[in-house]
Structure formats: C-alpha cells, structure tokens
Amino acid sequence: MVDVLVVGGGMAGVSIAYELAAHANVLLVEAEPALATHTTGRSAAIYAPTYGGPTVRRPTAASGPRFRALETELDTPPLLTPHTVLWLGADDEGAAHLDRLPAERISPAEARLLCPILSQVVAAAYDDEASTIDVMALHDGYRRGLRERGGEVRMASPVTGIARDGAGWRVAAGSETTAVDVVVNAAGAWVDELAAKAGVPTIGLRPLRRTAAIASGAQPIDPAWPLVCDAADRYYFRPEGRRLLISPSDETPSEPCDAKPDELDVALAIERINADTTLELRRVHTAWAGLRSFVADRSPVVGAWPDQPGFAFFAGQGGYGIQMAPALAALGAAVVLGHPVPDDIDVPARDVSPGRSAN
Ligand SMILES: Cc1cc2nc3c(=O)[nH]c(=O)nc-3n(C[C@H](O)[C@H](O)[C@H](O)COP(=O)(O)OP(=O)(O)OC[C@H]3O[C@@H](n4cnc5c(N)ncnc54)[C@H](O)[C@@H]3O)c2cc1C
C-alpha cells in the first residue's frame, strides 16, 4: 500500500481518490470548509458524448456504462437522466461548425419538431445519447465510497507547504504536516500554483470564466425540450423545470479565484438566445460563474513529468470534468499506481501525459 495525498475536493479529487483507495492509503485535503464549492458545484450538469475533442470524447464514451455501474457500486440515485442535445446551426457559420461534429444530422423541420421555439435554423444535428447528470449525487457517492475504502477527507486544510522528503513528500495542509509517497494535484484552477509551490514545472493551465443563469420569459418552458447548443459556441440553453438554464459560452481568462458572474455576460446570453428563438427571455432568477481550466490542446493532463516522479497532475478537465469523471478517474488511478489502463478506456496514457507534446 502506498500513501497518496490528493489535493482538491472537487469532482477530480474525490473521483481519483476513490479509485486510488482500492489500492492505496488515501488522504484528501480541501482548502475550503466544504467540498465541491468551486467549479464542480457550478456546472451545467450535461453528459454529451459529442462534446469536446477526441481525447475528451473517448473517456466520455467510456464513462456512460461506468455511470450506470457506479449507481450500484456507490449506492446513488440514478446518475444520468436521458436528455437529447440539439446542435444548432443558426446561420451559415454555425452550419459549417456542424460538419466537424460526430453527431447525426437532422433537417431544420425535424429540429423545430424537437424544439418549436427555434426561429433561426439553417442546419441541425442531435445527440440522443446525451443526459443530465446528478452531479452532487455522484460527488457525494465518491466521497462516501472513499471513506468506506478507508480514505480520509480533511476540509478547511489548504496546502501551504510542500517539499520533497527522500523519495516522497512532506505536505503542510491546515494544521497538520503529513509524509506521503505520492501527491496527486487535483486543485482545479489552482493546479499550477500548487505545482510551483512544490518546485515542479507547471503545465500552462489557463482558468477561463464561464457564466450560467436561470431565466424565464414570455413563453412557457417545456421541460421536454432538448439542450440546445449553438454549434458556433455562442450560447447554450436547456430546460431546468419550468425555467431555462442559459449560458453565453463565455471564456474570459481569470486568475484562480471564487468566480463571480458578470451581468453583461448574462445579458449577452439572453440577447443571443432571443435572437434565434421566439422565447423573449426577460427575467433572470439567479446567475453564477465558474472557472473551466484548460491547457493549450484542451485535453486533460494525467500523470507526472518524467523527471518529477511522485507528483501527478489530474488537471485540465475544462468543460468536461463531470461527464468524463468515471473513466478519467479510473485512468488516473492506473497511471498513478503504474497499473494498465482499463480496457474500456480507449485513451493511451501518453496521450494525456504532461509531456505529451514531446512524445
Ligand atoms: C458554468 C459551467 C458549466 C459547466 N458545465 C459542465 C457540464 O455540463 N458537463 C461537464 O462535464 N463539465 C462542466 N463544467 C466543467 C466541470 O464543472 C469541471 O471540469 C469540473 O468541475 C472540474 O473539477 P475539479 O475538481 O478539477 O475543480 P474544482 O471543482 O474547482 O475543485 C478544485 C478544488 O481544489 C481546491 N484547492 C485548490 N487549491 C488548493 C490547495 N492549495 N489546498 C487544498 N485544496 C485546494 C479548491 O478549493 C477546489 O475545491 C462546467 C463548468 C462551468 C463553470
């Protein structure tokens, strides 16, 4: 049994900690007094196998059956509720983007049957394997599962010091200092700050702010409408009960921080969605923002630099960290422990390694 310290109690941290705890003594430390307060608690909760590049789509596809298995393994309520994604080409530019998506094309008339409030449809495609995710049930399931496997969670324990100690590490977190064999850096937007603290080369992570809001307007919202995603990435919306979850798909560079919504971004979402629909959105009930963190190629980063053993990144989940979590956590645990990557996860470890551009 190795001793592993996982930094970060968002989806990345709890999921890999749970997978590692089957083979290791795991301690998870979280800076905040509660888990999942940053990006994980602010997602749009979408599972869409057609979303993201190939290194995102493959772990997302592998996660589908794993979500179902986790319902039993972690004794959770249903984690996925089927909810079609409609990719919308509202103009010629949007239609051109659709050509790059691995989603089935449908006619504008079929798109309007699925979502009658669309007023601008040049082309469309749909993903009927998409779902909404019960994010908090998954997160809580991983946290409980980690404890059941003997793992420990310490909240209000920010890592303030981290230094090599022989073949392992000494980590100061909150009021405790702990000696461990391996550190897993799952600190979300703070990943490069933590690496720098440890004297480990950073990975060039860029936190980008994304805004979401719950809105309503002149038209009643039908909960059966699909998630509508502008193929040119200018907005998305989906029913949230009798209201609408909306986002302008913004990506504003940010320092790692407790992100706050900018009302101009909320207004932009309303303006763009109103222009392409008959919705007449007017009222904003609540708004929030979170940091989606990416490296240059927008694929996740899993594992250690070749010359920095014992300090593994589990980072760069960007806008896909919930939908890929089940498979990416299993992949991450295999990489950290030097085990083979499970067969159902069609992602070679080198494709997600920090040094991949040199491969
Ligand atoms: C508006 C929005 C919509 C999104 N929609 C989706 C979606 O539909 N589907 C999807 O799959 N993904 C979505 N995402 C992305 C998803 O939410 C993220 O990929 C995921 O939550 C990242 O999880 P994380 O654990 O890496 O980061 P976080 O949840 O931010 O967790 C990192 C944790 O590390 C802790 N930490 C940092 N530094 C330290 C330290 N020194 N010591 C101890 N702890 C530390 C922080 O306090 C934090 O709790 C969305 C994101 C946003 C903002």
Instruction: Assign an overall shape.
Output: elongated
Distance between the termini: 31 Å
CATH architecture of the largest domain: 3-Layer(bba) Sandwich
Give the distinct bound molecules.
flavin-adenine dinucleotide
What is this entry, summarized?
This protein is an alpha+beta fold. The chain has helices at 11-20, 54-73, 92-98, 108-114, 135-148, 191-197, 263-276, 325-337, 349-352, and strands at residues 2-7, 24-29, 46-47, 80-82, 85-89, 104-106, 123-127, 131-133, 152-154, 159-165, 168-173, 176-180, 182-185, 206-217, 227-230, 236-240, 243-247, 252-253, 281-294, 301-303, 311-315. It has 2 domains: 2-76 and 134-204 and 296-358, FAD/NAD(P)-binding domain (3-Layer(bba) Sandwich); 85-127 and 206-294, D-Amino Acid Oxidase, subunit A, domain 2 (D-Amino Acid Oxidase, Chain A, domain 2).
Question: What this model shows, in words?
Answer:
The model has no long low-confidence stretch (mean pLDDT 96). With 359 residues, the protein is of the alpha+beta class. It has two domains: 209 residues, 3-Layer(bba) Sandwich (FAD/NAD(P)-binding domain), CATH 3.50.50; 132 residues, D-Amino Acid Oxidase, Chain A, domain 2 (2-Layer Sandwich). It starts with a strand and ends in a 7-residue tail after the last helix. α1 links the parallel β1 and β2. Strands 5, 6, 7, 14, 15, 16, 17, 18 and 19 form a nine-stranded mixed beta sheet that branches. Flavin-adenine dinucleotide (FAD) binds next to α1, β14 and β19.
